[in-house]
Amino acid sequence: MAHASHRTATTGLDPETRAAVLVEAIPYIRRFAGQIVVVKYGGNALAGSKAATTPEQGQVRGSDVEEALARFAEDVVLMVSMGLRPVVVHGGGPQIGALMERLGKTPQFVDGLRVTDAETLDIARMVLVGKVNREIVSAINLHAPLAVGLSGEDAGFITAAEHDPALGFVGDVVAVDPALVVRLAGEGLVPVIATIGADESGQAYNINADTVAGAVAEALSAEKLIFLTDVAGVRSRREDPDSLVARLDAKSLDDLVANGAVGEGMIPKVQACSHAVRNGVGSAHVLDGRLPHVLLLELLSDEGIGTMVTAS
Amino acid sequence: MAHASHRTATTGLDPETRAAVLVEAIPYIRRFAGQIVVVKYGGNALAGSKAATTPEQGQVRGSDVEEALARFAEDVVLMVSMGLRPVVVHGGGPQIGALMERLGKTPQFVDGLRVTDAETLDIARMVLVGKVNREIVSAINLHAPLAVGLSGEDAGFITAAEHDPALGFVGDVVAVDPALVVRLAGEGLVPVIATIGADESGQAYNINADTVAGAVAEALSAEKLIFLTDVAGVRSRREDPDSLVARLDAKSLDDLVANGAVGEGMIPKVQACSHAVRNGVGSAHVLDGRLPHVLLLELLSDEGIGTMVTAS
Amino acid sequence: MAHASHRTATTGLDPETRAAVLVEAIPYIRRFAGQIVVVKYGGNALAGSKAATTPEQGQVRGSDVEEALARFAEDVVLMVSMGLRPVVVHGGGPQIGALMERLGKTPQFVDGLRVTDAETLDIARMVLVGKVNREIVSAINLHAPLAVGLSGEDAGFITAAEHDPALGFVGDVVAVDPALVVRLAGEGLVPVIATIGADESGQAYNINADTVAGAVAEALSAEKLIFLTDVAGVRSRREDPDSLVARLDAKSLDDLVANGAVGEGMIPKVQACSHAVRNGVGSAHVLDGRLPHVLLLELLSDEGIGTMVTAS
Amino acid sequence: MAHASHRTATTGLDPETRAAVLVEAIPYIRRFAGQIVVVKYGGNALAGSKAATTPEQGQVRGSDVEEALARFAEDVVLMVSMGLRPVVVHGGGPQIGALMERLGKTPQFVDGLRVTDAETLDIARMVLVGKVNREIVSAINLHAPLAVGLSGEDAGFITAAEHDPALGFVGDVVAVDPALVVRLAGEGLVPVIATIGADESGQAYNINADTVAGAVAEALSAEKLIFLTDVAGVRSRREDPDSLVARLDAKSLDDLVANGAVGEGMIPKVQACSHAVRNGVGSAHVLDGRLPHVLLLELLSDEGIGTMVTAS
Amino acid sequence: MAHASHRTATTGLDPETRAAVLVEAIPYIRRFAGQIVVVKYGGNALAGSKAATTPEQGQVRGSDVEEALARFAEDVVLMVSMGLRPVVVHGGGPQIGALMERLGKTPQFVDGLRVTDAETLDIARMVLVGKVNREIVSAINLHAPLAVGLSGEDAGFITAAEHDPALGFVGDVVAVDPALVVRLAGEGLVPVIATIGADESGQAYNINADTVAGAVAEALSAEKLIFLTDVAGVRSRREDPDSLVARLDAKSLDDLVANGAVGEGMIPKVQACSHAVRNGVGSAHVLDGRLPHVLLLELLSDEGIGTMVTAS
Amino acid sequence: MAHASHRTATTGLDPETRAAVLVEAIPYIRRFAGQIVVVKYGGNALAGSKAATTPEQGQVRGSDVEEALARFAEDVVLMVSMGLRPVVVHGGGPQIGALMERLGKTPQFVDGLRVTDAETLDIARMVLVGKVNREIVSAINLHAPLAVGLSGEDAGFITAAEHDPALGFVGDVVAVDPALVVRLAGEGLVPVIATIGADESGQAYNINADTVAGAVAEALSAEKLIFLTDVAGVRSRREDPDSLVARLDAKSLDDLVANGAVGEGMIPKVQACSHAVRNGVGSAHVLDGRLPHVLLLELLSDEGIGTMVTAS
Question: Which of A109, A276, C82, E307 has its CA 20 to 30 A from that of E220?
Answer without folding.
Answer: E307
